Amino acid sequence: MEKEIRQHKPTEISEFERQSVPASNFKDWRKFLGMYAGEHAAGTEFVIGPLFLTAGVSAFDLIVGLILGNFLAVLTWRYITTPIATSERLTLYYKLEKIAGRRLVTGYNLANGLLFCFLAGAMITVSATAVGIPFDMPMPALSDTLPSSLSWILVVLGVGAVISFVAAKGYDSVSRFSNIAAPWMVMVFLIAGIVAAKRLGVNSFADLWAVWGSGSEPFPGQIKFTFWHVVFFAWFCNAAMHLGMSDMTVLRYANKNSVGWTTAAGMYVGHFMAWIAACLMFALYLKSPEAAAIFANGDVPSVSPGPLAYDVVGLAGLVCVLVAGWTTANPTIYRAGLAFQAIFPKSSTVKVTLISGGIATIAGLFPAFAMRLLDFVAVYGFILAPVGAIIFFEHHFAGRFGLKENYAEANAKSFNWAVLMAWLISMVLFYGISVYQGVFLSFFTLPAWITCGLLYLVFSKTFHKK
């Protein structure tokens, strides 16, 4: 098999969208370490950290919950996503086409690509809050949904154009940009957290603990976060990437399964240190006269990353916010481009990636994607994760159930009803329970994933001919 891969010459499409990645293009752990650190110590962290405080989380629940939740996420990447990625060497979209059929996977790719664009749009919003400060641009409020000014629109369009151009240059460009930016961004996050802590009077671990204390009542429109909310959010905020197998698209380049451990750089540098640093910056802002005046007027303070970082570490903070948005949006737009390219295989990767960047830029004009990021990433992971279960369960259990792998390709089918039924039933069932019972959606991501995989095996065994 390896010999076949080595002899398989790349087509004119350099990103290997519809073929196995040849061994000559395998990459070692160093290529992934910087990318994961840069992607996850990035724009989302400047928003999610403060949003934890708006959810009234306590110090113990936040710190210990993040340690456990991030560890579970790393294990999921290492033992669920990476082995399949290195075995198949295919993008998620092409692999799913082999199982689900061309017509069905077109709908999935459209949904996947759009969700990626919306997430990238939130990161363009983050970067725009930094660019807009020198122009005295009005910042979006926590409750804003629509663009607030002409200057906001112009800044977002400019930032989105630059990010889209970098993403369109391909995986190597995305990886190179992340590797260059990641070390510096991590240092700024760390320094900003230390400076904010000092200005809050933190001189010991007990003082740090006292910044949050036992938590508080959530801001209007936010739900109260407990220990388990933090654990499951940290575990499944990237559910689309690991349980949903989206990172097959990136990890297919890995030269060995141990590369999966590099995701820990993103989780503990980004989703631990950076989230806590951002929390401290927002906690400092909440003690300012400006925030007190906003509360006195019955309003809610903004969580715009640019002003928060600028107040703590000045110009370096602004540049960090700007670059942080880039390093999240770049690989996200790259993934979206591959999703759309699977729908239009004759189109060039550059073209569809630029279109993806345009959609993301339009989404970035609307602050709601960033200001409601906790809710958005929970829904985003919940929708896309169950599809990864179909790949996982087929990969590991098809032989035991007497099923043929890659059913649609093997039987020249364009629509696999077993996939659609398993996906819809698992999503509708658990989303309905979440809404009806008022339960945090991330609690149902894993049950929906397992249910989807089991239903796929049952439906395939029942309806598919040998």
Q: Please, could you describe this protein's structure?
A:
InterPro entries: CodB. It comes from Shivajiella indica. This is Purine-cytosine permease family protein. Keywords: Membrane, Transmembrane, Transmembrane helix. This protein is mainly α and 466 residues long. It has a single domain, classed as Hydantoin permease, CATH 1.10.4160.10. It has 21 helices and no strands. It has helices at 2-7, 29-40, 43-54, 59-88, 92-100, 102-131, 150-168, 171-199, 205-212, 227-236, 248-251, 263-286, 289-296, 305-313, 315-343, 349-364, 368-371, 373-397, 407-410, 417-437, 445-463. Helix 8 packs parallel to helix 12 (263-286). The longest helix has 30 residues, at 59-88.
Features:
466 residues, mainly alpha, Hydantoin permease, 21 helices, disordered N terminus
Profile the largest sheet: none
Q: Mean pLDDT across all residues, rounded? A: 83
- Poorly predicted segments: 1-13
Number of helical regions: 21
Q: In CATH terms, what is the fold-level topology?
A: Hydantoin permease
InterPro entries: CodB (IPR030191)
Protein name: Purine-cytosine permease family protein
Keywords: Membrane, Transmembrane, Transmembrane helix
Organism: Shivajiella indica
